[in-house]
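We modelled the chain as a single entity of 119 amino acids. Its sequence is:
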Amino acid sequence: MKYTKAQRLDIGKKIYTREITVAQASEIYEVNIYTARDYMRLFRDINDLPPLDSDSEISNSTLKSKHSTLDELGRMSKQSLIAEVIKARIEAERAKKGYEVKGGGPTKEFITSNKKNSK
């Protein structure tokens, strides 16, 4: 049976949020288990979500919070977005060099993370 993209995304969402398992989706929608898994991956990739772990719990509230973050970014001004990108790049570079910065101004504290594995 052939499904539209919207239907595939809906099936993928049900699998990703663990409403149903891949095997259940395979039976319910009469598709191969690998096809059902691909629908879940399609949903995950389109929504820029992390891969599922066997221990993790994903709920609709988690999905909504991800979209609200994207909505917040959409409402930011160009200057604010540039500032956020700069902050993220600085944090990434500091992590590569093995330290973090907590606080700001005269109370700035440098914390080395040489003993921590960054990989």
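As a brief sanity check on the tokenised model: Helices lie at 5-16, 22-28, 33-46, 60-75, 78-97. The longest helix spans residues 78-97.
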